[in-house]
Amino acid sequence: FNHMDLYRIDSPEELYQIDYENYFYPDGITVIEWAENADYLLPKNLIELEILKISENSRKIVIKGNNKREMKILAIDTSTTHSSCSVMEDNNIVGDFSINQSMSHNEILLVMVDEVLKKLNIDIEDIDLFVAVTGPGSFTGIRIGVTVVKALAMALNKPIVAVNTLEALSFGIFSDKKKIPLIDARGERVYYGVYE
Fold it and tell me: Cys-Cys link to 134, which of 37, 69, 120, 162 (CB 3.0-4.6 A)?
């Protein structure tokens, strides 16, 4: 993982002076702030994140893939008793399949992914980014979800993003007060986090 801040870069010569090529690894991730100052030198396989301020307490994250088109994202969550897979396109959730039943995640998850993609007329090869919810939550459930995401992403040579369950829950609440999401951990216990 690398970080570059190009805010003060005014010319290509300055980039060469800091050996910018060394920040780009085939299997690594480099986060670049103010990338528009050097977009002519950036690798072709990039993901662009734009954080837009909607209001004082609200932000919107726009994710774009290669060729500046909006990305197709497949997210899988098996951290609780619910199995869930969602597809986002053009920064909108276009498909969601959630189920809470007695079947285990490994019996239903791939069927759900296949079904939601079929309904949306999207081939799995068209997915640009895979998201795995990594807990806290059910250890076995998380293992199943992460394994499916890793297998699909590796087979298609696509990137993966890990999402924390509690952070995801708190992200949807816009308030100046502290947010404390809770998840049932069974045995009269809970998983929780405190977020500003």
Answer: 162
